[in-house]
Write a structure and sequence with these properties.
The structure is a single chain. The protein is an all-alpha fold. Helix 5 packs across helix 8.
């Protein structure tokens, strides 16, 4: 069975880009998650803005706790982006082969991107849930990956799967917008420079700008669902400050969070503005993260392709040598 090197190259470069961007922006991601997870009436809020989360970490001497759950988040991001980019690239290649088209339209691109996103959500949901709970725990009280996953039932590890599948529309919109803008820009460059496709590539700045623009569009359109997902997966607020609750929790099981219950809670306590609480922080983090990811991916994809071809060549030479031996 032949290896799809094109899809493998896309997946590897995308996963490496995700690893770097996640690590660089993780403190911002932790502040954003804790700010989004809080649900209180206006006069009772613990965090009035994103900077309050950072100030709390500094004032309590828990600055390094801004990195709690980084290992889990990196593992989740690496696997998620590898699965997504491999699936997205593979599905596009199959679509072009079976339809005979030379390019993919916007509608088909959305469907293919959503299919790749659904595969990613199912494969990485337990890690996604665990990393969210670790991030939203009280500073200095985050639990390890195994303990976080084994605290409840197996189904608890898949909290938010339904809304994660719904949010496959987010990367679908993002990468569709990015790909369409990228193709138009490259086509314009080829026409102006009169060179072959292999000689044209996006600059780091162009990839960054297109990544930021495409993610902004996707984030604004899907933000209410994004906040619901964070709240569903967030650590129980009672676990942060009240140890006495642990005694009662053995006799009284915690009620399960659902999309409808979270939506009702937001409406009752915060009103319509609550559905967009933290939107600025979300745009800042996701735009920087996605733009950085796509910029790194674009710059290393060619190198990754060469390395994979070299590895394939070495394997073929080794197999030939073994046959002749």
């Amino acid at each position: 069975m032949s290896i799809d090197l094109g899809s493998l190259s896309e997946a590897t470069s995308g996963a490496v880009g995700a690893l770097v961007s996640t690590t660089v922006l993780y403190p911002l991601d932790t502040c954003k998650a804790k700010f989004q997870a809080e649900l209180r009436a206006h006069g009772q809020r613990r965090y009035r803005n994103l900077s309050d989360v950072l100030l709390e970490a500094i004032s309590t001497g828990q600055v390094f706790s801004l990195y709690q759950g980084l290992g889990t988040k990196n593992l989740q991001s690496f696997i998620a982006q590898f699965v997504y980019f491999y699936g997205y690239s593979h599905f596009k290649r199959l679509y072009l082969e079976r339809t005979g088209y030379k390019s993919i339209g916007t509608k088909a691109n959305l469907i293919l991107a959503a299919a790749a996103g659904a595969c990613t959500a199912i494969a990485t949901q337990p890690l996604d849930t665990a990393s969210s709970r670790m991030q939203t725990s009280a500073f200095g009280k985050s639990k390890g990956l195994w303990r976080t996953l084994t605290e409840g039932s197996w189904s608890d590890a898949f909290d938010g799967l339904g809304i994660s599948l719904l949010l496959t529309s987010n990367p679908a919109i993002q990468y569709t917008v990015f790909d369409q803008l990228k193709q138009r820009m490259l086509t314009s460059k080829r026409a102006n420079n009169d060179v072959g496709s292999s000689a044209v590539a996006l600059s780091a700045l162009s990839a960054f700008v297109l990544g930021a623009l495409s993610k902004s569009v996707a984030t604004v359109l899907t933000y209410p669902a994004i906040r619901c997902k964070v709240m569903i997966q967030a650590a129980d607020a009672n676990d942060e400050v009240d140890k006495k609750v642990k005694v009662d929790s053995k006799a009284k099981p915690k009620s399960r969070k659902t999309i409808s219950s979270v939506l009702c809670s937001i409406w009752r306590k915060e009103g319509i503005p609550g559905f967009f609480k933290g939107l600025q922080a979300q745009i800042l983090k996701t735009v920087l993260s996605s733009a950085l990811l796509l910029m790194i991916k674009e710059k290393i994809s060619a190198t990754t392709w060469v390395l994979l071809l070299a590895m394939r060549r070495l394997l073929m030479l080794n197999q030939a040598r073994l046959k002749n031996a």
